[in-house]
Amino acid sequence: MTRPGKDPRKNPQKNELAVVSGASSGIGAATARALAAMGYHVLAGVRTDSEADAVRGDGIEPVTLDITVSEHIEALARRIADDPERRVLRVLVNNAGIEINAPVEVLPLSLWREQFEVNLFGHIAVIQELLPFLRRSRGRVVNISSVGGVAALPVFGAYAGTKFALEAASDSLRREVSAHGVQVVVVQPGGVRTEMAARSGDISLGLAAEMSAEHQRLYGGLINATVSSNTAFLERAVPAAKAGATIARVATTPRPRARYTLGTDAAFIIPLARFLPARLMDGILAMSHRSRTSKPLPAPASESAGSPS
């Protein structure tokens, strides 16, 4: 894992706000807690009252925030503008996301669009609304991408597509606002043990169960191999608390780099994807799946669909 420098602040700043979207669980909740421990007043985006109760704590104020709902984003902006203690917005962590994986040919267009609405357009909407606050404070945007934003694994086409797009938008934004004193940083996690990551395999298997017989023949083994590989890998993945602590340090380090990898897998795969010829990378990924493709496609454990988190 690439480590940012330690936060130099010995006395946490109580007059600053941080916004974390997708803060109900996993990476978002862990990041909110880590920033609150540094002294920020964190506006933690959640969707339900039960999620609000779960994340609420010292320095953490839950706010209703589905980033695909413009009224929620506008209400968040009003909350920042009308802050009773006149605190400035210093940090925006765009973390909300969903992951629904299936082969390009099989995944319905409605699910392609849903992932882009949450994983890309929702973040852009939040940035557009909150950027004026960050200009005033010379604050920072932290966009949570993925190893999938650099290396698109089979079956991950839609999810990776959203992350590739977020990477490009982040580059443009960074070059547009650096002269205004706003910093833009991308974090590229590999495997992290979260509810979303654990649920994605079941979602893939649920979609696979609805495929035609021909698509079962063409893609069943590949889907099984991908789900099996990811399930095994999650047992060794970075804990969410560790990921959140790293993101909080990235959000507060004085002179950040443009990008940080998170996890040994991301630190290994991303350079390979950037520098190896595409066909060689294809071969490496194919070999990693080959030992699992002969197994039958298991029945899904659940049929839950992803939602903004």
Automatic annotation (TrEMBL):
GO terms for biological process: steroid metabolic process. One of its GO terms (molecular function) is oxidoreductase activity. InterPro entries: NAD(P)-bd_dom_sf (IPR036291), SDR_fam (IPR002347). This is Short-chain dehydrogenase. Signal peptide: none annotated. Pfam families: adh_short. Belongs to the short-chain dehydrogenases/reductases (SDR) family.
